[in-house]
Each structure stands twice: as C-alpha cells, then as structure tokens.
Design brief:
The protein is globular and about 70 Å long. It has helices spanning 31-42, 72-76, 111-120, 142-147, 190-201, 226-231, 258-265, and strands at 19-25, 47-49, 57-65, 80-88, 90-92, 101-104, 123-127, 136-137, 140-141, 157-170, 177-184, 205-215, 218-219, 253-256, 270-271, 286-292, 295-304, 307-313. By secondary structure, it is of the alpha+beta class. The chain starts with 18 loop residues before the first strand and ends with a strand. Helix content is 19%, strand content 34%.
C-alpha cells in the first residue's frame, strides 16, 4: 500500500548552502544527474557543476553551491588529471568502450615504441574533437550528428599535455593495452588522446576506463560519494562541503581591517597603503580577500595601479 499525499511526510524546504562538494562520481551517471542528486540531498537553493565528466568516467566532480558558484568558471579553466586505461588493437565508433568496434589490427609494438609515442603526445599538441562530444556545430551538439550517422568537419584545437606517465603496460596480453596518468589543460579529450596514440603505434586504440583524480588544486582526497551523503543525517550534510575559498587557494590572501572591509564591500578600491604591511601581492595579481573581525571571505580582488580593486564579492 503506497502513501497518499495526505500521509506522506512533508518535503523539507530548500536552504542556503555555500561551499564545494568534492564528489566521487560513479560510473554511468552524467554530471548533470549527479548535480541534481547532490542538490536534492543537500536541499540547496543554488548549485552548479564545474565542467562535465562523461558517464563512462568516474572520479572527481567538484560541485559548487551558493556563493561558490561565482567561482565555478575558475575550475572550468583549471588543469585536470586523469588515470586512463587504453585498449590497443581496436578502434570504436565513439573512441571508448561504449561504441561498436570499427577496425581491429594486430599489436606489434614494443615498450620502446610506446615510450616514443607517449613522448610525442606530451607538451603542446593539436587535437580534433571527437564526433561524440557536446561541442556544437550550427547550434547542434556533435553527438547528434554522430548518432544520425553524419560526420562533420571539426577544426583542430591546441591543448597542452603537461605530464603523461605510463602506470602499467601489458602488450602481450590477450587484450593488449596500457594505463596512463595524464595532466592536461582544459578542453583535452582523453578519448582522442588514446585514439591518436593508437594510430601513432599503427594498431589503433580506444579508451576502456577513465578516472579523474584532480581538478586544479582539488583532489580525490576527502571526496565523498552520493551514498555517503545519503547516509548522513540531513543536518550534518552541509558540513561535508569544503569552504568557498577552497577554490581560491592559488590566490594570495589579503586581510582587511574593519574600515577597509566596509569600503571593499561597497565595491570601492583599497589603496596599497591601506593594506597590512605584510601583504604580498603583485601588480595584476588576483587575491582572496578576508575581513578580520571575524575572519570571513569577502571576495576576490585584483591589484591594479597601486590599488586593490574588487572583482567578485561574496555574501556569507
């Protein structure tokens, strides 16, 4: 017997929640679905994700809540680190294990050849975005064309592979392949990287597993799953968020006294002479700004022409 609307417990209202949830996204769930579930569990008024992670991929998906959403673009632009498992000898329609096999070729390369290929794809490289991606052409995502059996021309894009390390190599197995750790710039497609390495080796390749381990300075250390959030009491869930300034750790801190804090919150610039003597900030540098009584994040500001100029304020 199901509950009627009259007997069902009332739905709790949404609340203001501020901070960053380091979510360990499970396999098979889209980034948007993960955001919707986390937002529901936290009963948050405002939330946003910081770039998508394919359903095939697991790992770190930082979700921003409340005032932290003002800084989500910073994570979109941040470098990412992944661990990827690559199968050699077969290409697929999608570049990963979800697609159908298109070609199969023998794997004749050795470890030395693999090392040469890996080195070739380290540094600044050109990538052609895959057809199965959310990039848009004439207002439609590329994956819609791909599902309709169409291939459209895509311009190559410049990306940077900061580091590419082999973690495991199994060239003689029945399913030959390797696992690599990749630290890369925004906009890098690991599927495409795997395919390009396979072509350089002459045997083709596709991605079989992908796990994101870092976004900028944020890592899987301290990340939680949706199940772990669900197991917490409702009132304890907001404490699972990292503070808003977890997104700003690369910015030097500036602490203002009460008088300067009041002017800053009104959007006024603060002359360098009015900053604490020990403030270390260079011309053009972005700083995270705090009020000293009590210490709390006020926003971010940039030093320009000898004054600290507010760029984004937060209301905490």
């Amino acid at each position: 017997m199901t509950d009627s609307p009259a007997t069902r417990p009332p739905r709790l209202p949404r609340r203001d929640v501020h901070g960053v949830l380091l979510l360990d996204k499970p396999l098979g769930l889209s980034s948007n679905d993960a955001l919707v579930r986390a937002k529901r569990l936290l009963r948050a008024n405002k939330a946003g994700h910081t770039g998508t992670l394919d359903p095939l991929a697991t790992g770190l998906l930082p979700l921003c809540f409340g005032e932290a959403t003002k800084f989500s673009q910073d994570l979109l632009d941040a470098d990412k680190t992944y661990e990827a498992a690559v199968r050699l000898g077969a290409t697929t329609t999608t570049g990963d294990a979800e697609g159908e096999i298109v070609t199969e070729r023998p794997v004749t390369c050795d470890r030395a050849a693999l090392d040469v290929a890996i080195a070739r794809f380290t540094g600044v490289i050109e990538q052609v975005p895959p057809m199965y991606s959310a990039l848009k052409k004439d207002g439609r995502p590329l994956y819609e064309y791909a599902r309709a059996g169409q291939t459209v021309e895509r311009a190559a894009r410049t990306v940077t592979i900061h580091a590419l390390t082999l973690l495991d190599v199994a060239l003689q197995d029945a399913s030959p392949g390797f696992t690599m750790r990749v630290t890369c710039s925004k906009g890098t497609y690991i599927r495409t990287l795997a395919e390009d390495i396979g072509e350089a080796l002459g045997c083709g390749a596709h991605l079989v597993a992908l796990r994101r381990t870092a976004v900028g300075d944020l890592t899987l250390a301290g990340a939680v799953t949706l199940e772990q959030i669900d197991q917490q009491a409702d009132e304890a869930r907001p404490a699972m968020l990292a503070p808003v300034d977890a997104l700003l750790q690369r910015c030097p801190p500036v602490h203002l006294d009460d008088a300067a804090m009041g002017r800053f919150l009104q959007g006024q610039r603060i002359a360098r002479r009015d900053l604490p003597a020990d403030t270390e900030i260079e011309e053009g540098e972005l700083a995270r700004v705090y009020g000293d009584a009590p210490p709390r994040l006020l926003g971010v500001a940039r030093m320009r022409e000898g004054a600290l100029r507010p760029e984004r304020l937060v209301k905490l």
